[in-house]
Specification:
By secondary structure, the protein is an alpha/beta fold. It has 7 helices and 7 strands, in the order αβαβββαββαβααα.
């Protein structure tokens, strides 16, 4: 039991061995904790990081303010974060791990669902409004800037008037479930490109694909 609490509240040491700040990256997948949210559209950030972990062969552990996994690509060290603060307080976890690992803002990428994009469409942006997304809104408020990299994963808007919450917190239909593995593979490629090639090249290659 003592070991569990040591892990849960671990705050005193860095998880990344890299000392060069420009070689450290924070990839944040937004979602809500709890089994009832696992397969919902709003949890696409969590699911994207789960797919990345399976492809890159790393695992997550529960630490302060979220589940964290680390891995390396060609000399770059990546920390992947699934906040445990619930969507509306995502900024607290993002800010904590940026400061804890001394990761510059330009090396942060936030993955979120977007009803303004058709299902499966992916789009990388370096700044912009929160688009009504509560997780992005809180990150913006905590970081005090709208200039941070965000990876918008389209979930479509197939809902009637007044049904947005039900749709976003609803589960994928069968057709979407079949398409998701290929979309996750593409998303993993985008993340890899962001880390290795930079945001501008990645935007040119992946936006709208």
């Amino acid at each position: 039991m003592l070991d569990f609490f040591r892990i849960l509240f671990k705050t005193d040491t860095s998880l990344l061995e890299e000392t060069d700040a420009m070689k450290k990256f924070l990839i944040v997948g937004l979602g809500n904790i709890g089994d009832k949210y696992t397969e919902t559209r709003h949890n696409i950030g969590f699911k994207t990081l789960d797919a990345l972990a399976a492809a890159a062969d790393f695992t997550f552990e529960s630490v302060k303010l979220g589940d964290v996994g680390t891995y390396k690509i060609k000399g770059r060290s990546i920390l992947c974060l699934k906040p445990s603060t619930f969507m509306n307080l995502s900024g607290k976890a993002v800010n904590y791990w940026m400061e804890q690992e001394k990761i510059p803002l330009e090396n942060v990428l936030v993955i979120a669902d977007d009803i303004n994009l058709s299902f499966g469409t992916i789009r990388l942006k370096t700044k912009g409004s929160d688009g009504g997304h509560n997780g992005l809104k809180n990150i913006q408020n905590v970081l005090q800037t709208t200039s941070y990299n965000r990876f918008r994963f389209g979930i479509g808007a197939d809902f009637g008037q007044g049904r947005q919450i039900d749709y976003v917190l609803g589960e994928w239909n069968e057709e979407e479930k079949k398409a998701l593995p290929e979309r996750f593979e593409r998303a993993s490629e985008l993340i890899r490109s962001f880390v290795l090639a930079g945001v501008k090249i990645t935007m040119n290659e992946f936006n709208g694909s």
